[in-house]
Amino acid sequence: MLAEVNEAYHTTIVMITHNEGIAQMADRVVRIHDGQIISNLKQQKKKVEELEI
Question: pLDDT tens, 38-51?
Answer without folding.
Answer: 999 998 877 777 77
